[in-house]
From TrEMBL:
Residues 114-283 form the Quinolinate phosphoribosyl transferase C-terminal domain. Pathway: Cofactor biosynthesis; NAD(+) biosynthesis; nicotinate D-ribonucleotide from quinolinate: step 1/1. It comes from Flavobacterium turcicum. It is an enzyme of class 2 (transferase). This is nicotinate-nucleotide diphosphorylase (carboxylating). The lineage of its organism: Bacteria, Pseudomonadati, Bacteroidota, Flavobacteriia, Flavobacteriales.
Length: 285
């Protein structure tokens, strides 16, 4: 995974780009009708039940827009909220609050939806050893926040991007001339370039799992689009030789059964690509 310093840099880039995109040369609606020295206060109002996420990120946005804005927090990230709850108050320059409003709301609505869905999956996995993972199926330019939201919801992060873990999927294996060659070439490349990266290899069937196990140095096997019976066989074949991960069309109705097959991880793109934003609003008080 990427370092904390890298992660913070990603967040800063998100904020800078979001404000650039939304404000541009100026918030003329506010500049036109609100005095520059006007002070105000607003509340973050919850309009839908779920897990709140993005409070800490909102504080970063407010600080970027205006370091003098003050945020009084009543509910922290990761807590369950219900309709009518007030998460925080923000006070200071009225123009600054309005300038930050849409970026804060868009971010928190999306992050809260992801945290809520992740937490639903976490609850479904209780009592099993399996942990839920996100994927790279994220909104372009907003990945750091979406992966942060998964963590807030109780899930775990898969690799952040292409550069912090090797994942040999079916196309890699086919283009490389087969699984064994793909693994051998990868290990040689990592050694030659002094890269310390974990290797995950995707398997499409039990024969491919047997082939993967003939090579050393595989961190985790991705058991992709297997049915329950074959997943159990795959877990038995792999044993403690490496970690296991199930993926492929796993949803709320099937995730528990896959977990009970004994896998270590279950990855789901739905955590980030199939959520509806939680309804939140920022209201003047």
């Amino acid at each position: 995974m990427i370092s904390e310093k890298q992660f913070e840099k990603e967040l800063q880039l998100i904020i800078e780009n979001a404000i650039r995109e939304d404000v541009g040369t100026g918030d003329y609606s506010s500049l036109a009708c609100i005095p520059i020295d006007a002070a105000g206060k607003a509340k973050l109002l919850v309009k839908e039940d779920g897990i709140i996420a993005g409070v800490a990120f909102a504080k970063k946005v407010f600080a970027y827009v205006d370091a003098d804005l003050q945020v009084e927090t009543f509910i922290e990230d990761g807590n369950f909220v219900k309709k009518g709850d007030v998460v925080f108050h923000v006070s200071g320059s009225s123009q600054s609050i309005l300038k930050a409003e849409r970026v804060v709301l868009n971010s928190m609505q999306r992050m809260s939806a992801i945290a809520t869905k992740t937490n639903q999956y976490v609850q479904l996995l209780k009592g099993t050893q399996a942990k839920i993972l996100d994927t790279r199926k994220t909104t372009p330019g907003f990945r750091a926040c979406e992966k942060w939201a998964v963590k807030i919801g109780g899930g775990e992060n898969h690799r952040f991007a292409l550069y912090d873990m090797v994942m040999l999927k079916d196309n890699h294996n086919d283009f490389a001339g087969g699984i064994t060659l793909a693994i051998a070439k990868t290990k040689a490349y990592l050694e030659a370039n002094k890269l310390d990266l974990k290797i995950i290899v995707e398997a499409r069937n039990l024969a491919e799992i047997e082939e993967i196990l003939e090579s050393e140095g595989v961190f985790r096997i991705l058991i992709d689009n297997f049915n329950f019976e074959d997943t159990k066989k795959a877990v038995a074949l792999i044993g403690d030789k490496c970690l296991t991960e199930s993926s492929g069309n796993i949803n709320e109705s099937t995730i528990r059964a896959y977990a009970e097959c004994g896998v270590n991880y279950i990855s789901s793109g739905a955590l980030t690509h199939s959520v509806y934003n939680m309804d939140l609003s920022l209201k003047a008080i």
